[in-house]
Amino acid sequence: MTELRLVAGVDCSTQATKVLVCDAETGAVVREGRAPHPDATQVDPAEWWKAWETASDGLLDGVQAIAVGGQQHGMVLLDEAGEVVHPAVLWNDTSSADATTELIAELGGPEAWAEAIGSVPVPSFTVTKLRWLRDEAARSAAGGVAAGGDAAAMRREAARRAAAVVLPHDWMTHRLAADRSGIAGITTDRGDASGTGWWSPTTNDYRTDLVELAFGRQLALPRVAGPAEVVGETAFGAVIAAGTGDNAAAALGLDLQPGDVAVSLGTSGTAFARCAHPTKDASGLVAAFADATGEYLPLVCTLNAARVMSATAHLLGLELSAFDEAAITSSGSDGLVLLPFLDGERTPDLPHSTGLIYGLTRATMQPATMARAAVEGLLCGLADAVDALRDQGVPVQRVLLLGGGARSRAVQALAPALLGAEIVLPEPAEYVALGAARQAAWALSGAATPPTWQVPLGKPEPAITVDAATIRANYSQVLTSTRPLLSTPYPSPGSGQ
Ligand SMILES: Nc1ncnc2c1ncn2[C@@H]1O[C@H](COP(=O)(O)OP(=O)(O)O)[C@@H](O)[C@H]1O
Ligand SMILES: O=C(CO)[C@@H](O)[C@H](O)COP(=O)(O)O
């Protein structure tokens, strides 16, 4: 019997680290582990390392190659010695909303950014976080040494000491290498570099002038490794592949084909497709990301997806399974509209917004109606995302549902009508970690293309017939008419809170 060649894929996501050990030939998962991350938008990267150690404990025997897929955009600042100088500021931290507005204006508006990097930055993009830190440090310095207390002092010190800026997967990849010293030799890949705001998909290169624009000085940036490159070796003797951003890793795990759009319901909601050419969207809806194979990955991202369901379930005092049952058996939302912007929102660009419920009557103020409205609200946001991809010329033949939220039967049943496409449900699996494992197998093989791994399909819940046009029109009307309110910081100044 031939011995299995094993590879590992890691997903360092917002909520958890997940590790899969797979057969390099077939992709069959032979071992898996996971460990949670702190529920915060600024996190010490040491927490990711701790989670990785817990999640991978006892799994790594015989693993010959490894790669990391990571939540995109998070700003990890390092000093010359490679020490972290500030908690990583994650993609879902909206502190940089004002910095984003300023940066967009300073370069000459949304069109200038679309020309430079294919996308218009939102507060998720790393470039805006750099500007935020610079401004915070300057503000507290101007206010005197003690201004702002410990947090402000830390930011001043971080801005002074920062020598390099990297992303979560870059940091984890470097940390895995047995032979590393300071910031020398840190790598990233096109997929993750494309979410920084200082990498151009058209020139395939960094725009270091945009780092300077944001931070006022240059920082070292990781070398962009090739899709199948070996970038190091771990202490346990496995080769390390380049790794990538989590959505690019999921695209690789799913082996997306033309006409396929992946819709992921994790902490974020994302809709993305593989594409042979870069996109350029000055409206700011579609981000011009790169994929992990040398192509492109136009993507729309919302800040609120799976947690809309867990938060509503919590409100209703229901377990997730009971919430799901309530949403699916409800006779309908009857005009109850939930705008699901519980953590602010990125698409549409409303970083200061909160959630909103419209249409409460004695008839609609029922748990099952509320559960249905929550699922419809998050799907309406994702339907707008899929439409934005269509507007960029991305063909949408089938939608592949993934992420923790895709386990919801109500999501599966309502998605065909609301997303307006055939729904395919890949067998529930950790597709980011699987894609990272496939990249590791590719790097290990030295082949020109990634190995062929089958993606088993599950059977989605039967579709529920709903009046999708009316549900989407109601959602859109509530959003349009409350937009001025949702654009204002909440609680509003002077509210006494
Ligand atoms: N059956 C379900 N119904 C709704 N949400 C679910 C279900 N199972 C898991 N989730 C949610 O999925 C989320 C985790 O999804 P995941 O894709 O792992 O997120 P991330 O990659 O952001 O860490 C959690 O918020 C969890 O509550
Ligand atoms: O910001 C984006 C994409 O642009 C998010 O998709 C993050 O990459 C986080 O992903 P999850 O942890 O929700 O999977």
Bound molecules: adenosine-5'-diphosphate, 5-O-phosphono-D-xylulose
- The span between the termini is 68 Å
Which strand-content bin applies to the residues?
A: 15-25%
How does CATH name the architecture of one domain?
2-Layer Sandwich
Oligomer kind? single chain
Could you tell me the radius of gyration in angstroms?
22 Å
Structure description:
Catalyzes the phosphorylation of D-xylulose to D-xylulose 5-phosphate. It catalyses: D-xylulose + ATP = D-xylulose 5-phosphate + ADP + H(+). InterPro entries: ATPase_NBD, Carb_kinase_FGGY, Carb_kinase_FGGY_CS, FGGY_C, FGGY_Carb_Kinase, FGGY_N, Xylulokinase. The active site is at residue 246. This protein is α/β, with parallel strands linked by helices and 497 residues long. It has a domain at 6-254: Nucleotidyltransferase, domain 5 (2-Layer Sandwich). It has helices at 45-56, 97-107, 110-117, 126-142, 149-161, 168-176, 190-193, 208-215, 246-254, 306-316, 320-329, 367-391, 409-419, 431-445, 468-486; strands at residues 6-12, 16-23, 29-36, 42-43, 63-70, 76-78, 88-89, 164-166, 187-189, 199-200, 205-206, 223-225, 230-233, 239-241, 244-245, 260-265, 269-272, 287-290, 296-302, 337-339, 356-358, 398-402, 422-426, 457-458. The strands form seven sheets. Strands 1, 2, 3, 5, 13, 14 and 15 form a seven-stranded mixed beta sheet that branches. A seven-stranded mixed beta sheet has the order 18-19-17-16-22-23-24, with helices on both faces. A two-stranded antiparallel sheet has the order 4-7. β13 and β14 (239-241) form a beta hairpin. α4 packs parallel to α8 and α10 (306-316) crosses α11. The longest helix has 25 residues, at 367-391. It is globular and about 65 Å long. It binds adenosine-5'-diphosphate and 5-O-phosphono-D-xylulose. The site of adenosine-5'-diphosphate has 17 residues, from α10 and α11.
